[in-house]
Design a protein that fits this description.
8 helices; single chain; alpha/beta; eight-stranded parallel barrel; 281 residues; isomerase; TIM Barrel
């Protein structure tokens, strides 16, 4: 029998909708999610808000597994920006530790100036060194860092080979990969390519897309072969959380239905693969 996986969602699904922070947590648990990922920036919220998040998740029985950080400054060449970017990343790690999370989901940035001022190798080197140092800090706090593959032309880590290479070069036991299923599809990864991440996957994001551009759609709304990618990930031995990523719903007034649909369809796929019980009615 295949290993069981948790089904979670990222709090950003509720952004720019009428569903507030506390209500979003309660709704997620009512819908049936097993866990929750927090997108809120630690520099934009206060201690009272952090306590509310933690207490509400604890009250409804929804553990926090990941905190999500987009941090392009990690590859900036200016020392002042580097200091800020590193301090901000550490603040996310501290927030994750407070929440009892397992990992910091980190988006590390893009190449710039077409590699003509700073060569691509130098920009890559900035990222490797800084993530390695963040790995030390995360390990001290009991967390891992998971690196996101971004399927865009200037992204540092834009396909499976670059993701695997990056993790190898960082060479830190607390730094792993985030396997984002729609990003795998948009980057042109084959199901066999997923095997290159064997032993280094620390988290999964799941959404659908139209096969051409980033979409964050509920499963079944696009053309991503989600079930096949998820099976390939399971075949690497991964055991952990699958987090649904939904952002910028085309109809914010119906966001609850959007999230319910994503939960239902993803849970169905997971149950067909034998890693989750059937979704609630």
């Amino acid at each position: 029998m295949a290993q069981r996986l948790e089904l979670g969602m990222i709090s950003s699904a509720w952004f720019d909708t009428s569903v507030g922070l506390e209500e979003g947590i309660r709704r997620a648990r009512e819908i049936g999610f097993d866990s929750y990922d927090i997108f809120e920036d630690p520099l934009d919220i206060d201690d009272a808000t952090r306590r509310l998040i933690k207490q509400t998740c604890r009250e409804v029985g929804l553990p926090i597994r990941s905190v999500v950080c987009v941090n392009f400054g990690l590859v900036d060449f200016n020392p002042s920006v580097e200091r800020f970017a590193m301090d901000r990343a550490r603040a996310y790690i501290d927030q994750g530790a407070y929440f009892g999370a397992r990992n910091l989901l980190l988006v590390i940035g893009e190449y710039y100036w077409d590699g003509e001022v700073f060569p691509y190798e130098a920009i890559w080197g900035f990222a490797v060194d800084r993530v390695r140092r963040l790995g030390d800090y995360a390990a001290e706090k009991g967390l891992e860092i998971v690196i996101e593959l971004e399927p865009f032309s200037q992204a540092l880590v834009r396909d499976v080979d670059e993701l695997a290479r990056f993790i190898r070069e960082v060479g830190h036991p607390a730094v792993k990969a985030n396997a984002d299923i729609s990003h795998l599809h948009l980057s042109g990864a084959s199901f066999e390519d997923v095997g290159k991440l064997r032993g280094i996957i620390g988290h999964i994001h799941l959404s659908d897309c139209d096969g051409k551009k980033h979409g964050d759609l509920p499963a079944g709304r696009g053309v991503t072969p989600i079930k096949d990618y998820l099976k390939a990930i399971i075949d690497t031995g991964y055991s952990g959380t699958v987090s649904i990523e939904l952002e910028y719903s085309p109809d914010p007034d119906r966001i609850v239905e959007w999230v319910e649909e994503a939960y239902r369809e993803t849970s169905r796929i997971m149950s067909e693969l034998g890693v989750r019980e059937e979704a609630r009615a």
